[in-house]
Amino acid sequence: MSSEVRSAEWALHRRAASACVAAREAAVAGDFHAWEQEGVLAVSVTDSSLDFLSTLSGIGRETVPVAIDLVRRSVRNGVRPTVVVSTELGEEMETALRAGGLVRAGDRLLALRRLDTTPGSTSGADQGVVPVAGNGAALDAFLAILLAGYGVDGVVAAFIEAEHRLPIMRRFLVLERTVPIAAAAMTIHGEVAVLGGASTLREYRGRGAQSRLLRHRLRVAAEAGCGLAVATAGPESVSAANLRRAGFRLHRRSAWTRA
């Protein structure tokens, strides 16, 4: 596993750990925990509507046995984590995963971009992007756009809201004239910027709002001294295409889940 991939996964894990703390403080349904064990980065969430958050990452050949043990213990507690592998394991370790009751699931993408120079803002590329600070009406407007763009409610919406109220969260809106149409967020962990949380209102999609938000966050991250930006996406998704156009390298990670 490369040092960049490892740094990116640690930053994503710190973001997830902060979100778990926020969810507990906001009394979102379920239990939320994040920890590191012998090189494995674990996130455990008990509410079934948030299953996608339960992951074991940072997996390489040497940590496969630890991951298998954590999966077994998690299943006994009613949690079915996805094991996310960032390197080629080889036939022996893949056989060990299958012997541990795991099967291949859909792959996941880790998007990486070095920030050696500050991305420029040319020709109004991120025109209309405004920061959203603090609390109050501006934050409420940001959350309303973010959740409406996702089209979620219930426990999922409560979790997303709790996460994006975090003080460490940097939030941005795209305005069309004076109307907010898209939202995105970012956190910084050491020298790594995690770009996460982004949505556009359905009626305004296809107008480049997310590309503007992406470029703007890259510039803000570079100006803050970050050397690496990281994001996640589904293979062949619109998000993956946007990230590729913005200069990200897409690193495919295999995913394994309990059969």
From TrEMBL:
<dbReference type="Pfam" id="PF00583">
    <property type="entry name" value="Acetyltransf_1"/>
</dbReference>
<dbReference type="InterPro" id="IPR000182">
    <property type="entry name" value="GNAT_dom"/>
</dbReference>
<dbReference type="InterPro" id="IPR016181">
    <property type="entry name" value="Acyl_CoA_acyltransferase"/>
</dbReference>
<dbReference type="GO" id="GO:0016747">
    <property type="term" value="F:acyltransferase activity, transferring groups other than amino-acyl groups"/>
</dbReference>
<feature type="domain" description="N-acetyltransferase">
    <location>
        <begin position="127"/>
        <end position="259"/>
    </location>
</feature>
<protein>
    <recommendedName>
        <fullName>N-acetyltransferase domain-containing protein</fullName>
    </recommendedName>
</protein>
